[in-house]
Amino acid sequence: MEKRVFFKGWLLPLLLIAPQILVSAVFFFYPAGQAVWQSLFIPDPFGLSMQYVGLGNFKYLLSDPYYRASFFTTGLFSILVTLVSMIPALFLAIVADRLIKGAGTYRTMLIWPYAVAPAIAGVLWLFMFNTRVGVVSWYLGNLGYDWNHVLNGSEAMGLVVVSSAWGRISYNFLFFFAALQSVPKSIIEAAAIDGARFWRRFWTIVLPLLSPTTFFLLVVNVVYAFFETFGVIHTITSGGPQQSTTILVYKVFADGFVGQDLGSSAAQSVILLVVVGALTVFQFKYIERRVHY
Amino acid sequence: MKKISIGALAVSSTLLSPIAAYAETEVHFWHAFTGRLGELVAAQVEDFNASQDNYTVVQSHKGNYSETLNAGIAAFRAGEQPQILMVFEVGTATMMAAKGATRPVYEVMAASGAEFDQDAYIGAVKGYYTSTDGDMLSLPFNASTPVLWVNRDAFKAAGVDPDTDLSTWQNVDKTLTALKAGGSDCPLVTAWQSWIHLENFSAYHDVPFASKDNGFSGLDTELQVNGDAQIAHLTAMGQWAKDGKFIYTGRRNEGGANFRAGECALFTESSAGYAGIKSEAKFAFDVRPLPYWEGVGNAPQNTIIGGASLWVMEGHQEEEYKGAGEFLSYLSSSDVQAKWHQDTGYLPITAEASAATKASGFYEENVGTEVAVIQMTAKAPTANSNGLRLGSFDQIRGIIDEELEAIWSGDKSAKDAMDSVVKRGNPLLRRFEQANR
To answer: Where is the ABC transmembrane type-1 domain (chain A) (predicted)?
Structure first.
């Protein structure tokens, strides 16, 4: 099935991929290599001296029960963010796909939240749920529910998940919407003539045909939840209350840029890199099997 | 598109850079102040620049305290450091350990020939920034200490006498009960919980926060926040939280909004909260000394400071250090200090500035502004009340915040939480020790 094109010699292909290799080398391999190197030391913040500690930073981290606990927090957070950003996006895409009038307006409005930077999204949601002046927490209070994410870990987790997923719904919506448009109408019509109702058609035809997109979004969203959500955490909870929203990437930031502990921070980013790498390999190896291209 | 935005950035940053770039010797000063405080700093700098024509001080705002310290460190690593960097008190141990990155202020002052008398500074302020040999390493700039703010109207609304004695926590305990019974939804709120209810608490009761004189006499220090005095205080506060007498609002100064809006009766907050409370509060308020537990430790000892000091960074020309020395000397002159104290509620850092403020009648006109000064200076500091000098202290404060939240939510007893702080914090101190060996 696969098409392969062969070049004669190796100079031209090398030349063609050189820009990409160069960009990866400068912006990925070099910094990643630096992180691996730094993770073997305990440096002072100013870079005046370094103590070689071998795998000491890793040992220190992995023997810390609070660090181990943040793996669980990160797992829970990532699963929730992925689900909360993908399911509503798929739903909205299906609904928008069936619209006859005003589809363009709806689409545009659904895409808007993607333009909001994570930190700003964080502030927006924080403001709505502010325990003193928040609109939502005020309504909840009227309903007899005392919202207090400052002390309640589950509420804090819920808030950062929703804030992180919100802008992401737009992004996922775009992909789902485009994928839905490419589902051949003829197959759906044929199924309809055979008597299949909407949900039946959706489960047996549309969803399988969406699987490449779904898989792509799954990988991208997990990576997003792991790395890019730190702005939201920083603005809303700073990892608290207690450690209920301290995800791995936030700890990398907090230890490195607040605590000036660059050795530990570097070791954490190496661990994070390995975890996300393993997760992506796992996704490609096991979940991709269920994808029909 | 990207190119355009980078170009635009370059143009705008050029435009933003100060116009006075032609002057003889430039001294860069990075600080963490915005809003009213930012304006006041800018005014000081302008005034200094106008007062002489050898040096031009260029001030820039670099974010909050943590961000400013980070900016300074990152700049040092890149060889772009400013001559003067503002570092908050928590970063003091980090800066002191960074020999080779900083130049001690007493040296800068001696070399610049500017007038400089270390003994002119208030003891508890000076002690925080002085080496064990008694040399001042950084210049105290803005120093504050926690006090008790009282909303008199809220007291009256709850049927409690606003002039009731609140000098001890025992009395506050009774008052909180009365306020709650009188219908107050927020009898007590706090800002900076670790700074006020652990760090200052320990100094005020003359009990250690950490071994080795709170880290002053060695990097091999260990936390001692799980002492009986601290646990008793936090147990009481945990009970107040449970009873709805103490309302927790967050790790920083979120509680200030509640108090300034008139929702809370009592507020433990920095004396530097004065400017904000004075301008926003639509109720009668009082400043009282921070309460202490009668019969615990040697209370009341003195409270310790929060705020920032100015560090001079290594790697510049001698002429620039002269300028830096002149500027620091200007900043600590008694007129500048007295004005700063009166404008902001920060402490006057020299005895002379304090006397000048007193003589001007400021304290009579602004009742309560003197409380912080008295509280800091009434007794000579002991080894437990000189201040704190702990590495990785920003992270340790983070741990303390987490564990305090566990107490407020009822998840942990005060003892378990403080034992956990010690267990989690000590490895950070060991790492700091190792990094600065």
So the answer is: 71-283
Q: Angle B414-435/A262-282 helices, nearest 10 degrees?
A: 100
ipTM of the complex: 0.88
Chain B environment of A241 (Cβ under 8 Å): 402, 405, 409
Query: Where in B351-396 does DSSP place strands (E)?
Result: none
In this predicted model, what pLDDT tens digit does every residue of B42-94 receive, in sequence order? 999 999 999 999 999 999 999 989 899 999 999 999 999 999 999 999 999 99
Residues of chain A found within 8 Å of residue B263, distances taken between Cβ atoms = 132
Contacts 24+ apart (CB under 8 A), A66-72: A66/A243, A66/A246, A66/B424, A67/A251, A67/A268, A69/A243, A70/A243, A70/A246, A70/A247, A70/A248, A70/A251, A71/A248, A71/A275
Name the residue among A42, A240, A264 with its Cβ closest to that of B251: A240
Q: How close, in Å, is residue A95 to chain B by CA atoms?
A: 34
For residue B33, is it within any domain? yes
In a domain? residue B3: no
What's the distance, CA A101 to chain centroid?
Answer: 33
Residue B110 forms part of a structural domain: yes
Q: In whole angstroms, what is the distance from residue A83 CA to residue A214 CA?
A: 11
Q: Which helix (H) or strand (E) holds B148?
A: strand B146-151
Two structure tokens written together for A267? 């070791």
pLDDT in tens, B338-395: 999 988 889 888 888 889 999 999 888 887 888 998 998 889 899 999 899 999 998 9
Task: Pick the residue from chain B with its C-alpha nearest to A43.
Answer: B435
Q: Tell me the sheet residues that pair with B121.
A: B350
Q: B16 exposed, middle or buried (CB, 10 Å; 0-12, 13-18, 19+)?
A: exposed
- All structural domains of chain A, each given as residue ranges with its CATH number in brackets, are 54-290 (1.10.3720.10)
Alpha-carbon distance of B196 to B321, in angstroms, equals 36
Which residue of chain B is at minimal alpha-carbon distance from A47?
A: B77
* Domain coverage including residue B249: 146-303+391-435
**B199 shares its domain with B246:** yes
The whole-model pTM stands at 0.90
Count how many residues are written for chain A: 293
The number of domains in chain B is 2
> The CATH number of the domain where B69 resides is what?
3.40.190.10
